[in-house]
Design brief:
heterodimer, A: alpha+beta, Flavocytochrome C3, Chain A, domain 1, globular, B: Ubiquitin-like (UB roll), Fumarate Reductase Iron-sulfur Protein, Chain B, domain 2, 8 helices, 7 strands, binds flavin-adenine dinucleotide, binds FE2/S2 (inorganic) cluster
Chain lengths: 640, 251
C-alpha cells in the first residue's frame, strides 16, 4: 500500500478482523519496563487527555502540555451536539458496519477504510468508558441512555449531555488525567506553547515549549512524542474555534519533516450566527440539532426587505426541502452550507449584510407547542438571544455557514504515527478518519478512540520495536531548537512596525475565506497563492508586538501563531488548487454537475495528498497515498 | 439595532505576580453595542498597541461561555452585571454611552494574580487531583447499560457538572471561599451510582485540599450562586456538607 514511500501500514485480513489481529501482532512492552519510557503528549483536549491518562495507567512516564491555564479548557470543551456510537440501543438498525459505511460515504470516499472501520468498532467502548467515569449523559426515565439523530444520520446513535457533550466528555478525560497527575504518572505543564519538535537520529524525541508566564524556553525529551493539538480552522481568522486554536504545533512538526495531508479539506458548518461587525473576534455555532425542527428558507424575491413574518409561505423558498426532498433540512453539512451560499450569492440572503438565511421554528412551535421547543433548545435560543438580541421564539433565527472543523492534518499511518518516526498524531490534528467531510458527532468519537483505545497499543509497538539512546534536555539538538525559537521571538519583537497582529490575521482570514472557503476556483486560488506570500512579507517587516519575551505577552503568542498561519495558508491553497475535483468540503466550482452538485474524479484523485515541506515559499513535494475501497464501493453521494 | 457608544475604562494593571498594581484609565470610543465585552477589550488593546502601550492581559479562549477561561470583576460584579453570563457573553448593549467601567481581576488568596486581569487558578486542578474523579482505568468499563441511573440522579449530576471552573464563585464570596466549585464537583460524582465506592474518600480529599489552598470558609452569603454564570445551586454545598459529615464519622 505504499506509493512514493508512504506506507499506511494497514494490516491484512478482512476489515472486521484487522484491528483484533493487529493488536495481537504488535509487540508489547514488558510491564516492568514501561516506567523506563517517557512519552511527551502535547494537548489536553479529548485526544490528548485520554491518551495521557491511559498511557500513565499502563505505567509509562507521561509529560503533558497545554496552552490554557488548565487542561480542562481545551477547545473540545465547546462541542455541543454529541458523540456517535454504534450501540444500536434504539433498535433502529444501527451497527458497527453501518456507522463505518456512513462515515466513509459521508467523507465522500476520501478516508482510509481500515481506520474508519476501527473507529466505528471502538465507538461502543467509548460510551462504556465514559459512563464508568461518571459522564452524565442524557437518560430516559427508565434509567438507560437516551440517543438522538444528528447531522443527517438515518439512525439515532448520538449520545449527548444537554448541549454540553464536549464539556462533559472532556471533564471525564480530564478527571482521569488529574487522577494520574496525583499518582505522579503524569507531569502536567500548563500555559506552555510548543514551538518546535526535537528530532534526533531521525526520530522525534522531544519538544521545545515556551513557558507563557515567564517566557522561558524549555526543552523536554522522551522516547516518543504525541501531538493532539487540534485543528487549524483559525487560519480563516473567523471560525467557531476557540481563540487559541492554532496550526503552530503541527506546522513546526511539518517543517521538521512530518507530511501534511489534505489541508484543503475544511468543514464549513451550516448553522452559525452570521458575521455582524469588523470588530468581531469569533463566530458562534448554533447546534446542528436545531435543524431537526427548524426550517431553512430565504425569500423567493431578490432583495426582499420585508420582515420575515410579512412574507407569506408562497413567497418563501425552503430550498433544502426543495432540492433534497428525502433529507430536507437535515442534508449533510457541506451541502447545506453550499446551498446557503448559493442563495446569498444570488441576492436572496437576508439581514443587514445579506449574508444570512432564516432558520424558522414557527411551524414546529405551532405543531409541538412552545414548551416542547423550549425543552429541546431552550439554552440555544437563550444563547442566540444574548448574542443577537432577538427572540427566536418570535422571529426566525438568522444563520450563515462558518468555518468549524478541519479534516486535513498531519499524515499518519494505521498506528497513528506520522512519517517522522516516533511522532504520533491524534484527534483533529491528524488527517485520518473523516475524508473530505466529517459527519456530525464524529470528532469527539475519533478523539477519544485515538486516545483511549488506539495509541495505548500502537505506541507500545513503536517503543518495543526501537532502541533509544538516552538523551538529556541539554542535547545539542535541543539547544539548536531553542536558539531557533528564540531568534524568531526576538525578530517578532524587534520589527516594531505599524500594523497589529490581528490586523494581519484578519487580512489572511478574509482572503482564505473568499478564495478557499465554500467555493473555490482556479483563478481565485491562484490569486490567493500570489497574495499570501505578500502578506507574509509585509507581516515580517511591519507587524507591531509590544512588550518583551520574558513575560506573559499575549500579542507575542498570537504573532507566532499568525506567522505560522501565513505559511500554512499557502499550503492549504496550493492543495486546493492541485485537487482538480470536488469532494466533501472541497468544492471546486469547475467540477460540478449540471444541478450544482460536487463532482469527484476518482480516476485521478482517489488519494490522500501528503505534502512534504521544502522551504518557505518553495513548492512542496506531494506524496500520494492511494485509497482503496474494498467494502464501500465508490459511488456518487446522493442525498436527494 | 446596534449603536456606537463611548466609555471610560478603569482597568487594573499589574506587571507580574510580585509587582504592585494600580488602576489606569483608558477611553474606549465608538464601541459597537453588538460587540461582546472581550471584543471591546480587543478594540482597546489594538489601539494601545498602535500607541506602543502594552495591551491589557486577560484570559479567554472559547468566547462562548463554556471553557471557563475568561472572567473579571466588572463594576464590582464577577463577570459583570448580567445574570448567568460569562464575561465573554456579556454584550456592550448592557452599557450606556458615557459609562465608566471598572475592571479588575479575581481577588482571592487561592488565586494569585499573574498579570493585569489574569490570575492563577491551578488550585482548582489540584483539588480535582485530590479526589474529583472516579478511579476507573481505561478498558475496564462494564457495558454502559449494566447500571441504570434514575433520571433524577442523572439530571442532578448534570446540573452540578455544568460548572465551568471559572472561579467567579470565589471572586464573589466575601471570604473567597471555593465551596460552590468544590461542592459542584463532589456532587456530580457522589450522586451517581458509579461514584459510590469512592464517595467518602472523594469528599474528604477534596475538602482538605481546598483548605490547604487557602480558600476561605463559607458563611452562607450565597454571593457565589448569584455570580455563577451557570446557575450552580448552593444546594450542592448542603449536599457536600452532609457527605462530609457522614464521611468524617466513618474516617
Ligand atoms: C463549537 C464547536 C462545536 C463542536 N461540536 C461537536 C460535536 O457536537 N460533536 C463532535 O463530534 N465534534 C464537535 N466539534 C469538533 C470537536 O470538538 C473537535 O474536533 C475536537 O474536540 C478536537 O479535539 P482534540 O483533542 O483533537 O483537540 P482540542 O480539543 O482542540 O485540544 C487541543 C489541545 O492542544 C493544545 N495545544 C494546541 N496547540 C498547542 C501548542 N502549540 N502547544 C501546546 N499545546 C497546544 C491545547 O492547549 C489543547 O489542550 C465541535 C467543534 C466546535 C468548534
Ligand atoms: S472565554 Fe470561554 S467562558 Fe469565556
Amino acid at each position: 500500500m505504499s506509493s512514493n514511500g508512504l506506507d499506511s501500514r494497514v494490516p491484512s485480513g478482512p476489515i472486521a478482523e484487522k484491528w483484533t489481529r493487529h493488536k495481537f501482532d504488535m509487540k508489547l512492552v514488558n510491564p516492568a519496563n514501561k516506567r523506563k519510557y517517557t512519552i511527551i503528549c502535547v494537548g489536553t483536549g479529548l485526544a490528548g487527555a485520554s491518551a495521557s491518562a491511559s498511557l500513565s495507567e499502563l505505567g509509562y512516564k507521561v509529560k503533558t502540555f497545554c496552552i490554557q491555564d488548565s487542561p480542562r479548557r481545551a477547545h473540545s470543551i465547546a462541542a455541543q451536539g454529541g458523540i456517535n456510537a454504534a450501540k444500536n440501543y434504539q433498535n433502529d438498525g444501527d451497527s458497527v458496519y453501518r456507522l463505518f459505511y456512513d462515515t466513509v460515504k459521508g467523507g465522500d470516499f476520501r478516508a482510509r477504510e481500515a481506520n474508519v472501520y476501527r473507529l466505528a468498532e471502538l465507538s461502543v467502548n467509548i460510551i462504556d468508558q465514559c459512563v464508568a467515569q461518571g459522564v452524565p449523559f442524557a437518560r430516559e426515565y427508565g434509567g438507560l441512555l437516551d440517543n438522538r439523530s444528528f447531522g443527517g444520520a438515518q439512525v439515532s446513535r448520538t449520545f449527548y449531555a444537554r448541549g454540553q457533550t464536549g464539556q462533559q466528555l472532556l471533564l471525564g478525560a480530564y478527571s482521569a488525567l488529574m487522577k494520574e497527575v496525583a499518582k505522579k504518572g503524569v507531569e502536567l505543564y500548563t500555559r506552555r506553547e510548543m514551538l518546535d519538535i526535537i528530532v534526533i537520529d531521525g526520530k522525534a524525541r522531544g519538544i521545545v515549549v515556551r513557558n507563557l508566564i515567564t517566557g522561558k524556553l524549555e526543552s523536554h525529551v522522551g522516547d516518543a512524542v504525541i501531538l493532539a493539538t487540534g485543528g487549524y480552522g483559525n487560519v480563516f481568522y473567523l471560525s467557531t474555534n476557540a481563540k487559541a486554536c492554532n496550526v503552530t504545533a503541527a506546522w513546526r512538526a511539518h517543517k521538521k519533516g512530518a507530511y501534511f495531508a489534505n489541508p484543503c479539506y475544511t468543514q464549513i458548518h451550516p448553522t452559525c450566527i452570521p458575521v455582524h461587525g469588523d470588530y468581531q473576534s469569533k463566530l458562534t455555532l448554533m447546534s446542528e440539532s436545531l435543524r431537526n425542527d427548524g426550517r431553512i428558507w430565504v425569500p423567493k424575491k431578490q432583495g426582499d426587505t420585508r420582515s420575515p413574518d410579512q412574507i407569506p409561505d408562497a413567497e418563501r423558498d425552503y430550498y433544502l426541502e426543495r432540492k433534497y426532498p428525502s433529507f430536507g433540512n437535515l442534508a449533510p453539512r457541506d451541502i447545506s452550507s453550499r446551498s446557503a451560499k448559493e442563495q446569498c450569492d444570488a441576492g436572496r440572503g437576508v439581514g443587514s449584510t445579506g449574508q444570512a438565511v432564516y432558520l424558522d421554528f414557527r411551524d414546529a412551535i405551532n405543531r409541538l407547542g412552545k414548551d416542547v421547543i423550549e425543552a429541546r433548545y431552550g439554552n440555544l435560543f437563550q444563547m442566540y438571544d444574548r448574542i443577537v438580541d432577538n427572540d427566536p421564539y418570535k422571529v426566525p433565527m438568522m444563520i450563515y455557514p462558518a468555518v468549524h472543523y478541519t479534516m486535513g492534518g498531519l499524515w499518519v499511518d494505521y498506528n497513528l504515527m506520522s512519517n517522522l518516526p516516533g511522532l504520533h498524531v491524534l484527534g483533529e490534528a491528524n488527517f485520518s478518519d473523516h475524508g473530505a467531510n466529517r459527519l456530525g458527532a464524529s470528532a469527539l468519537m475519533q478523539g477519544l478512540a485515538d486516545g483511549y483505545f488506539v495509541i495505548p497499543y500502537t505506541i507500545g509497538h513503536y517503543l518495543a520495536s526501537n532502541k533509544f539512546e538516552p538523551i538529556g534536555a541539554d542535547h545539542a539538538e535541543c539547544k539548536n531548537a531553542e536558539a531557533e525559537a528564540k531568534k524568531r521571538i526576538d525578530t517578532l519583537l524587534s520589527i516594531k512596525g505599524k500594523r497589529t497582529v490581528d490586523d494581519f490575521h484578519r487580512e489572511l482570514g478574509l482572503l482564505c475565506w473568499d478564495k478557499c472557503g465554500m467555493g473555490r476556483n482556479k483563478a481565485g486560488l491562484e490569486e490567493a497563492l500570489q497574495k499570501i506570500p505578500a502578506i507574509r512579507e509585509e507581516f515580517w517587516s511591519n507587524v507591531t508586538v509590544v512588550g518583551s519575551g520574558e513575560e506573559l505577552n499575549q500579542s507575542l503568542e498570537r504573532a507566532g501563531r499568525v506567522a505560522d498561519f501565513l505559511e500554512f495558508g499557502e499550503l492549504m491553497v496550493r492543495d486546493a488548487l492541485h485537487r482538480e475535483e470536488s469532494c466533501g468540503g472541497h468544492f471546486r466550482e469547475e467540477h460540478q454537475t449540471e444541478d450544482g452538485e460536487a463532482k469527484r474524479d476518482d480516476a485521478n484523485f482517489c488519494y490522500a495528498g501528503a505534502w512534504e515541506f521544502s522551504g518557505i515559499g518553495s513548492t512542496p513535494n506531494l506524496h500520494k497515498e492511494q485509497l482503496e475501497f474494498n467494502e464501500v464501493h465508490l459511488a456518487t453521494r446522493s442525498y436527494k | 439595532m446596534s449603536r456606537k457608544i463611548n466609555l471610560t475604562l478603569k482597568v487594573w494593571r499589574q506587571k507580574n505576580a510580585s509587582s504592585s498594581g494600580r488602576f489606569e484609565t483608558y477611553e474606549a470610543k465608538g464601541i459597537d453595542t453588538d460587540a461582546s465585552f472581550l471584543e471591546m477589550l480587543d478594540v482597546v488593546n489594538e489601539q494601545l498597541e498602535k500607541r506602543g502601550v502594552e495591551p491589557i492581559a486577560f484570559d479567554h479562549d472559547c468566547r462562548e461561555g463554556i471553557c471557563g477561561m475568561c472572567g473579571a470583576v466588572v463594576n464590582g460584579m464577577a463577570h459583570g452585571p448580567e445574570k448567568e453570563t460569562t464575561l465573554c457573553q456579556l454584550h456592550m448593549r448592557k452599557f450606556k454611552d458615557g459609562d465608566t467601567i471598572t475592571i479588575e481581576p479575581w481577588r482571592a488568596n487561592g488565586f494569585p494574580i499573574v498579570r493585569d486581569l489574569v490570575c492563577d487558578r491551578s488550585a482548582f486542578d489540584r483539588i480535582i487531583s485530590a479526589g474529583g474523579f472516579i478511579g476507573v482505568r481505561t478498558g475496564q468499563a462494564p457495558e454502559a447499560h449494566s447500571v441504570p441511573v434514575g433520571k433524577d440522579k442523572a439530571d442532578w449530576a448534570m446540573d452540578a457538572a455544568e460548572c465551568i471552573g471559572c472561579g467567579a464563585c470565589v471572586a464573589a464570596c466575601p471570604n473567597a471561599s471555593a465551596m460552590l466549585f468544590v461542592s459542584a464537583k463532589v456532587t456530580h460524582l457522589n450522586v451517581l451510582p458509579q461514584g459510590q465506592p469512592e464517595k467518602n474518600k472523594r469528599v474528604l480529599g477534596m475538602v482538605s485540599q481546598m483548605d490547604a489552598e487557602g480558600f476561605g470558609n463559607c458563611s452562607n452569603h450565597y454571593e457565589c450562586e448569584a455570580a455563577c454564570p451557570k446557575g450552580i445551586s448552593v444546594k450542592n454545598i448542603a449536599k457536600m456538607n452532609r457527605d462530609y459529615l457522614a464521611a468524617a464519622i466513618k474516617a
